[in-house]
Amino acid sequence: MELNWRAISEDEPGPKWAGLFHEYWPDYHRWWAREGPEARPGFLDSHKALRAHMPELLPLYDQLCELAGGTDHAARFLSFYCPPPYLSSCSQAIWPGAEPVLVRNYDYSPKAFDSLTLRTNWQGRAVMGTSDGLWGLVDGINDAGLAVSLTFGGRRVVGDGFGVPLILRYVLQTCETAAEAGRVLARVPTHMSYNVTVVDAQRKFLTALMAPDRKTTITHQAVATNHQERVEWASHARFTATVERERYLLQRLTLHVDPEEKFINAFLRPPLYSSRFDEGFGTLYTAVYRPQRLQMEMCWPRARWPLNLHDFHEDTRVIYTPEGSPSAAE
Amino acid sequence: MSAELKNISEIRRHFHRNEDPIYFISATNFNLLGLDEWCKNFKFISYIDCYGGKHPNTFVPSEQPHAEFQSIEDINNYLLQHKEVIDLIKRRGGKPKFVFLMFDAETERLSKELGADVWFPKAKLRQKMDNKIETVRIGNKAGVPSVPNTLSVVENYEHLKEICDKAGLGHDLVLQSAYGDSGHTTFFIKSEADFRRHEHEIVGEGEIKIMKRIDCRGSAIEACATKEGTIVGPLMTELVGFKELTPYRGGWCGNEIFATAFPPKVRQKARELTFKFGEQLRKEGYRGYFELDFLIDKKTGDIWLGELNPRITGCSSMTNHAAFAHADAPLFLFHLLEFSKKKFKLDVDELNSRWADPKMIDSWSQMVIKHTEDTVDIATAVPETGIYRMRDDGSIDFNRFDYHRRAVGSENEAFFLRILQPGDYRYEGADIGILVTRGRSMTNGFKLNERGKRWIHGIKKGVHGRPMPTAEAGPALADPAFKIM
Q1: Pairing verdict, β A2-10 and A217-219
Q2: ipTM of the shown complex
Q3: Residue B177 is inside which H or E element, if any?
Q4: Mutation for A interface: B468, B477, B482, B483, most A CBs within 10 A
Q5: Distance, in angstroms, between B469 CA and closest chain A CA?
Q6: What confidence tier does B3 reach under pLDDT thresholds 50, 70, 90?
Q7: Which of A116, A141, B78, B125 lies at a 20 to 30 A Cα distance from B146?
Q8: Mutate to test the interface with A, among B68, B194, B472 (most CBs of A within 10 A)
Q9: Residue-wise pLDDT tens digits, A11-20
Q10: What CA–CA distances, in Å, run from B131 to A80, A117, B180, B289?
């Protein structure tokens, strides 16, 4: 499949963001309303939830709703409050070398992916990362050098809380250190289970094991795949090989002192790299975050795309994902 | 049947006529290899069939969908819920007795459901004993000293240095977290870079045992705490961290047993300390089989307690196959005896002094061969279990199928137990198999000897794999396809 990947920068919410919204909205709307709009919380509750848990974002949220056309459905969608459940796969780890580096694979369906790297300077804070749901992020970095990334936590339970991409956006808009991010992640409710790894410019790191039905655990894990402390959803775990990927990454951290390039390249081949694109769990990209340099780099088996927070160039790439190729996990 | 067993001969006879169905349930039967020939009605229930269906007392149920195993306990809990396993146990009848390498509270629950007794102290007690910090405490009580150490939570490298300065340990350190096998939770830390590598296993993991690093040899000794006293096996050498065998620096990768493995004074001392430790374990409520690692200072010969494994271990097959085991009985038989509730009398002192006699020990070595390269593929061929022969030119070939390690005739033969099965992933750290030879595999200087290297090479040469498919995602060096604005 052909993915038209874009890197877009806009300092303040404006015409570019509005253009993106209108382009993606029909698909998102269909997805968001697939169980009927009444299955999702109303605008008042959504707004109230945002005010209770992420008050700093409210002015920005109001601005975006305005740009999105101000409809009820768009505003409820943009609140990320109790969205329909969704799953992904993913692996992430912090390089144990001299400089802090966070590397992650994003394993998901190419059909339901925005293929968008977004750089913003909203509320005076520069942030860039992989966009999801127009203002959420599945990974990203801010101008304080705080980098953050998520993996699905491998549990089926769904509860009252926010879609995790907005929680990542909130962390990057309001925090500068891993410790601050840890406090936010421990506090904000999530609607499904996710493992969020953060690392700051001082190389302080943590992984928050977030869940809607139990207290968030802040761990010192340097690796996260698709389970929390124990595998709880056996078939998902088996299908995504989460235990093998975790074991493999832990070995990479402790057995070798891999040079940075070797560490990154490990993400571009099995068992971390997944070619199950047909089944919704193919590796769509590998992202590398370098908190001290305020850089991110998108990597594929045969391509690299470096991006710099303070020297960001809008650009595009076409990425071909190999559907129908033999499964890497067989 | 209720009469008291009065001597070794009666104990042996008792087990040769045993009617209780006893099962060793584990990933493989390696640890208790051969025990079925000492104890009637003793069966192995394994997850991996190392024998291709040819071992008469090993039962391997057909593979069913299961959760990813995160531990040996998970494997056991899967086996205990497998219909074919349950059918086998029901069909054979009697009140089943289970022994395990590893088990947890869930294993205990499943065993109870099946009406079986677990012939080991409770998982909770074992878990407590297995804690490195608890081991130090028990050792101190028993008069078995540990390497100079301190126990502390560690926040970061600076903090670690502060702790060590206060405790006078220097900065060349060995750290261990509370649980885990050597090689997985033992970290050698001399610099900040070393610390970073293991940071995620140290920070936030609670109390850490911080030891001064000493120049020592590892050794292992197994024993069994019975109501008549602690029976002590011989002191074995440890093969540690050989890059031909394991990717884990400092990781256990085999053992040797031979009469003169350490100077007589050291051997005697180790036996005494093990006895004392066993007697203390009994006071703490633990009984049965256990293993101690001793660290022996290369220069002074000082002997320090390293680790306690309150269970059978990877070297149990060494202890239970040495000449003394064949002359009297394998050590594990006394474990079964202890848990059988059978009344018995035993002169433990007499047995211990007999087992201390160098004549009672013949020379064997075992090597656990792992995939040591940083590659991942799928195994297509792996040397099968059996007896291999080394030719004069050092090459080896398969001679015959056998599941008895004592069938190894000479130093030119070896028994190989296949663990990696064709179709399995071959990844760095994956077990390929275990090779047992007569004689030594290390030099007097504790390096792998030539013969050992040839055996490893010979086995590894027989392992083949097919590469994993790599996808061709990307790229795209494309002209800018479009811009939306």
Answers
A1: unpaired
A2: 0.74
A3: strand B173-177
A4: B468
A5: 6
A6: confident
A7: B125
A8: B68
A9: 999 999 999 9
A10: 45, 47, 8, 17
